[in-house]
Amino acid sequence: MEAKSVTVAFQLCGVMVTYFDAQGKPYDQKWFTSDQPTLTACQSYQDGVIVNLQSQGFRVQKATTEVSTDLN
Q1: How far apart are CA 68 and CA 42, in angstroms?
Q2: What's the domain of life for this entry (predicted)?
């Protein structure tokens, strides 16, 4: 019997959430992260984080950012 191996690649997917008070001043910041196999899966995860925050009563605005591969 021949041994076979499978490699599954996952990449860390994240959402940085900054919380602001009623005066517009930031008071907290949290990372929500998950290993995801594809960009599409990552985007779905990020959308899920947004929906979850909205269901908790938060108003969510996406910041305009560029895609980065910087790991620092």
Answers
A1: 14
A2: Bacteria
Residue 21 corresponds to which amino acid? Answer: D
3-state secondary structure the chain: CCCCCCCCCCEEEEEEEEEECCCCCEEEEEEEEEEECCHHHHHHHHHHHHHHHHHCCCCCCCCCCCCCCCCC
What are the tens digits of pLDDT across the range 16-30?
999 999 999 999 999
Q: From its phi and psi, is residue 41 left (phi > 0), alpha (psi between -120 and 50) or beta?
A: alpha
Distance of CA 32 to the CA centre of its chain: 5
